[in-house]
Write a structure and sequence with these properties.
single chain
């Protein structure tokens, strides 16, 4: 028990969170690139068949041959690109290609030691890298304080790390990758099945309510306006939140996310900071709502809403 109290103490888990935050920076940066490269390769492979392209698009054969040739050239070029994964290649400066030494990769300390600049070309390193590390460290420390020194605390650390990564990826790219969303959902259901988080019935109902609620809003908005108001990744993220936090928390998460998202969106509009298409991704606000519910606890949240 004493070992648990030390290893799962706020200080130790906070330091562990800094290390996980360093990994999250790689995940946040590379996951969209890996996906986009794969999508390009799949599209090029599909378009490279001139006969199928001509048949499906009713293009003249000469034009289909020309397009297929360009697609095959793209496919060949993509095949020559250096391999890209989460672990390889090692981290390097995107400007000059300098490979980071181990001490330059130390969470938070590496950035501070370098003064926020590449040691080779002196290009500025975004402050977001140490902020992600610090945020993850603080989250892990806070979870230790919230849940105490018990093994299930590590599950909530994993949940929070995945949520932080998804929020950052969605903010950057408006993508919520299935490679993170779906494991988060299944991990929530599995944890409930093993009796480590919430009752399994609450988790299953939460996943169902989370997905169908935003799915219904999506189709209603599309039928009325003819436009898509959100992506399918938002449905899956709310389903995962429901699996971890229970069906009772789905509506409070959506309400909180909507209010905060509207405030941020109005602020960005007033400062002319809205991206092309004039939209704000919803995933980061769903994640924020999830964090509020996680740390406040269901009884307090229900009390805020007058449902207790």
């Amino acid at each position: 028990m004493q070992d648990y109290e030390f290893l799962l103490s706020p200080w130790v888990l906070g330091l562990f969170g800094l290390c996980i935050g360093s990994f999250l920076n790689v995940l946040i940066h590379r996951t969209p690139l890996i996906l986009e490269r794969q999508w390009l390769a799949d599209a090029a492979g599909q378009l490279g068949d001139a006969t199928e392209l001509s048949r499906a698009s009713t293009l003249p054969k000469a034009e289909a041959d020309k397009l297929a040739g360009a697609a095959n050239a793209l496919s060949e070029r993509l095949g020559k690109l250096p391999a890209l994964g989460i672990a390889l290649p090692r981290s390097r400066c995107p400007k000059c290609g300098h490979q980071l030494a181990w001490h330059e990769n130390l969470p938070l300390l590496g950035w501070l030691r370098l003064g926020g600049k590449c040691s080779a070309c002196k290009t500025s390193i975004s402050v977001r890298y140490p902020l992600i590390e610090l945020t993850c460290g603080l989250l892990f420390a806070a979870l230790s304080w919230r849940f105490g020194a018990q093994p299930s605390t590590l599950l909530w650390c994993g949940f929070s790390a995945a949520l932080l990564a998804l929020a950052a990826i969605d903010w950057d790219t408006t993508l919520l990758p299935d490679s993170l969303n779906q494991p988060l959902l299944w991990a929530g259901l599995s944890a409930a099945l093993l009796g480590l988080t919430i009752p399994l019935s609450d988790a299953l109902t939460g996943a169902l309510v989370g997905y169908l609620s935003l799915w219904s809003v999506y189709w209603l908005f599309k039928l009325v306006t003819g436009k898509e108001g959100m992506g399918y990744g938002d449905f899956k993220l709310l389903a995962a939140l429901g699996a971890w936090l229970g069906w009772q928390m789905v509506l409070p998460i959506v309400l909180g996310a909507s209010v905060i998202g509207a405030i941020v969106g109005i602020g960005m509009k007033m400062n002319a900071n809205l991206r092309e298409g004039r939209y704000v991704p919803f995933g980061p606000f769903l994640a924020g709502g999830g964090f509020v519910v996680l740390f406040a606890g269901a009884p307090r949240v229900l009390g805020w809403l007058g449902w207790a």
